[in-house]
Every structure is written in C-alpha cells, then in structure tokens.
Amino acid sequence: MSAFNVIARGRSYHPVTMPLDGSHINAYLELYEAPCELHIFVECVFALDNLFLDRVREKLT
Q1: pLDDT 10s per residue in the chain (61 long)?
Q2: N or C: which end of the chain has fewer CB within 10 A?
C-alpha cells in the first residue's frame, strides 16, 4: 500500500482523475526496489488503481 501511495502522488487530475500508467511505476522503481517479482508488483499497483478509480466514479454518480 505504501508503494501505491507513493506512485499515486504522480497522478494527473486534469480534466478528470486519470489512471496511472507504466511511467509512474518506472519512476518509483528508479528510487526503490520492487518488494516482490516485478510482474506481480505491477499487477497489484494497477489493481489498486482500478479500485481507486472505481471509488472516484461512484462519488461522481
């Protein structure tokens, strides 16, 4: 979760909340070591991001 929070700080909110992309994860990995296998880490970050975006959409409706 802490890795996701650090990665999500680079999120863009203009004009709407935008999903994270690979460049956000790459920027994190330039500073920190992946806590597990890279493909698992990436999948987890994107899964958490999807949950976050779902909550944002729910609040808008």
Answers
A1: 999 999 999 999 989 999 999 999 999 999 999 999 999 999 999 999 999 999 999 998 8
A2: C
Can you give the residue ranges of every domain in the chain? Answer: 2-60
Contacts of 38 (CB under 8 A, 6+ apart): 29
Name residue, tokens 């680079």: 10
pTM (predicted TM-score): 0.91
Q: Which long-range contacts (CB under 8 A, 24 or more apart) does 42-50 make?
A: 44/4, 45/3, 45/4, 45/7, 45/20, 46/20, 48/1, 48/4, 49/4, 49/8, 49/19, 49/20, 50/19
Residue 56 has a pLDDT of 94
Structure tokens at 40: 């698992």
